[in-house]
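Let us practice reading a record.
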Amino acid sequence: MIWPSVGRRAAEFEEVALVHLDALYRGALRLTRNRAQAEDLVQEALARAFRGFAQFRAGTNCRAWLFTILRNVFLNQLRRERETPHEVEFFEARVPDDLDDARPAAPTPEEEFLQTVVHGDVDRALQSLPEQFREAVVLCDIEGFSYREIAEALECPIGTVMSRLSRGRRLLRHALDGFARDRGYVKE
């Protein structure tokens, strides 16, 4: 039997939090650069958010709260991976029985669009930014977060967000200068 309060809490969570599922997945994909890992990251973040939903204050920014959880889960996973030595047994590293299973899945329409519109140089330039600047630029310029929402998600003052955005954009502009000149977007 599902207790009425649990069912009510699940319905409320679904109404308030799950509307941000696509944005969370995009954020996770940018962090992990791997679809399967991004899906796992979103699943873990949503599970933690649901467990902690009683602490969420209604009327506050749910999207920023969820991105904070997503980011913290990602950072915790990175720390664990760095602490764990990776050993591969000889018999574990084998060729799959069916090589078709090893082939990556076809890209989604959104991924195809991003691959054609956002050239590899642009993506590499964005990924080359130090993490603190990349996070601010991605949340503001790609995800459309307000400065206040970014400050909540990154747990820092708005002034820090503004300076990280300014510096991140400047670094990105510098990294893309050659790309823009080569393609004639900017004249000498």
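A brief commentary: Residues 90-103 have pLDDT under 50 and may be disordered.
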